[in-house]
């Protein structure tokens, strides 16, 4: 039997990781494209004429010239849609597999791209963003789980971070497209929105070739196919130990009729609390406020339109290169070290930016050239710290800590928490910037302090631990969470 199994080549396995990670590129492109498009005069003049006129007003308040709920809704509607769709994606992911969920993600995104790029009015523009959000919700649910389940234990962190790496690449691509398409009049914005179809198309075609994960096959009672697939992706016939771990976890999972209800049980509380809070904290670092609205932010501090878009490209490249640092270091230095180190780095950069703007940027002036360049440099320092820590680890840790019986349900809560907070930030940032002014950076810095304390006391180290051995090796060894793993869990404790 083993001798007859034809193992996948290393090239094909890497191809599978890469194709799945295009779900991250699709997400990242959507993050990056919205801020650049809303900085284009042609786009504003067509859909938001009042904002266009306000922007052109010579003495308009620097902090408030983009403050418009409809502009924010253009960005945020995608994330509200992704929030809701992630729960449907969880059921599909469990019942029909990770592969089919990824396929559906690409289809919804392709439809959404077609609607947004051709939208004649704001209603269809928002409808297209909502359809894109469904695709993002499905992709963000399935892709990190797929990568964690298909990767070998010793490379699981690095492989899973490919999702976040491709998110950052998507943001860079979007910033470059924004910079170039801003020179195409009057429909450069249509080009920018339409090119989101490229990663969606690659994901669609690739998902037809991807194998299903062994865990998903075994979970759906396709044990023999699951064993064969496990042998193929591990490139060895000696997979009995890992296979039996998955079988035992799958048998336990099949005994759970209501995974969302099981998720609220006492023993599942540690991964649920950590999974949700990591996503909340990830957004309240302020990263997406910067990535969504980087061109707008740089215009606020004094850069001209094209210069602000180019500055956003620079921060995007910093984002990509720093995520590569995470791929190298996450399985070497561990999750906790990266999270804590970055808190110090992000806190310092946010505080200094806030002080600079508080002292030197009034409602109607611009920073001088040197001060504006310092702000860009500090934004790059902040982005670098986020990119090798909270960015990738916010997705990695929830994908590897939930037991199989609640894995897709638990990750749905993590994804929906991320999308909810992303929606809140996207919908409110421009208004917060208008009302809080430089104080918005102190607001995010305060959150970073809370994040660091949470990691210090409540986030355990999970590197080099099998996904299906987390209870024994992680939760039962932790000073606080071990109380939720006692043997009396089934005796009526809430």
TrEMBL record:
The lineage of its organism: Eukaryota, Viridiplantae, Streptophyta, Embryophyta, Tracheophyta. This is Major facilitator superfamily (MFS) profile domain-containing protein. Belongs to the major facilitator superfamily. Sugar transporter (TC 2.A.1.1) family. GO terms for molecular function: monosaccharide transmembrane transporter activity; symporter activity. Residues 16-463 form the Major facilitator superfamily (MFS) profile domain. It is found in: Membrane. One of its GO terms (cellular component) is membrane. PANTHER family: OS07G0206600 PROTEIN, SOLUTE CARRIER FAMILY 2, FACILITATED GLUCOSE TRANSPORTER. It holds the Pfam family Sugar_tr. The keyword Transport applies. InterPro entries: MFS_dom, MFS_STP/MST-like_plant, MFS_sugar_transport-like, MFS_trans_sf, STP/PLT_plant, Sugar/inositol_transpt, Sugar_transporter_CS. It is a multi-pass membrane protein. Keywords: Membrane, Sugar transport, Symport, Transmembrane, Transmembrane helix, Transport. The chain crosses the membrane at residues 12-31, 70-89, 101-120, 126-147, 159-177, 189-210, 272-296, 308-330, 337-359, 374-397, 409-430, 436-460.
């Amino acid at each position: 039997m083993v001798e007859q199994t034809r193992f996948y080549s290393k090239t094909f396995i890497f191809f599978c990781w890469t194709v799945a990670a295009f779900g991250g590129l699709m997400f990242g492109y959507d993050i990056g494209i919205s801020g650049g498009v809303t900085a284009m005069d042609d786009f504003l003049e067509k859909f938001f004429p009042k904002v266009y006129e306000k922007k052109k007003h010579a003495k308009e308040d620097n902090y408030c010239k983009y403050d418009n709920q409809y502009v924010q809704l253009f960005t945020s509607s995608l994330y509200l849609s992704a929030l809701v769709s992630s729960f449907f994606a969880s059921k599909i992911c469990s019942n029909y597999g990770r592969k089919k969920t990824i396929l559906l993600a690409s289809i919804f995104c392709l439809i959404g791209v077609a609607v947004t790029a051709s939208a004649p009015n704001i209603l269809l523009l928002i409808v297209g963003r909502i359809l894109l959000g469904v695709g993002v919700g499905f992709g963000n649910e399935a892709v990190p789980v797929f990568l964690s389940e298909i990767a070998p234990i010793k490379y699981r962190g690095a492989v899973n971070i490919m999702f976040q790496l491709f998110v950052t690449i998507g943001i860079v691509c979007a910033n470059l497209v924004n910079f170039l398409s801003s020179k195409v009049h009057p429909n450069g914005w249509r080009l920018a929105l339409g090119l989101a179809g490229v990663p969606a198309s690659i994901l669609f075609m690739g998902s037809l070739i991807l194998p299903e994960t062994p865990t998903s096959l075994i979970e759906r009672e396709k044990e023999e196919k699951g064993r064969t697939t496990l042998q193929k992706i591990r490139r060895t016939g000696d997979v009995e130990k890992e296979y039996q771990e998955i079988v035992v976890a799958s048998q336990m999972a099949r005994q759970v009729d209501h995974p969302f209800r099981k998720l609220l049980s006492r023993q599942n509380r540690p991964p649920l609390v950590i999974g949700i809070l990591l996503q909340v904290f990830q957004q309240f670092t302020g990263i997406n406020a910067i990535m969504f609205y980087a061109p707008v932010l740089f215009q606020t501090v004094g850069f001209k339109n094209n210069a602000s878009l180019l500055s956003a490209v620079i921060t995007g490249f910093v984002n990509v290169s720093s995520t590569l640092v995470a791929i190298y270091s996450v399985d070497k230095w561990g999750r906790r070290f990266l999270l804590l180190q970055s808190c110090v780095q992000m806190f310092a950069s946010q505080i200094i930016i806030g002080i600079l703007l508080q002292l030197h940027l009034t409602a109607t002036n611009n920073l001088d050239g040197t001060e504006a360049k310092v702000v860009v440099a500090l934004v790059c320092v902040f982005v670098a710290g986020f990119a090798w820590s909270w960015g990738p680890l916010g997705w990695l840790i929830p994908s590897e800590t939930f037991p199989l019986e609640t894995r897709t349900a638990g990750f749905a809560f993590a994804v929906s928490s991320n999308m909810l907070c992303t929606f809140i930030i996207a919908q409110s940032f421009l208004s917060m910037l208008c009302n809080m002014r430089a104080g918005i950076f102190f607001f995010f810095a305060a959150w970073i302090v809370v994040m660091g304390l949470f990691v210090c006391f409540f986030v355990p180290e999970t590197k080099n631990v099998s996904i299906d051995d987390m209870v024994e090796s992680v939760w039962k060894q932790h000073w606080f969470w071990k109380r939720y793993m006692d043997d009396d869990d089934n005796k009526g404790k809430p």
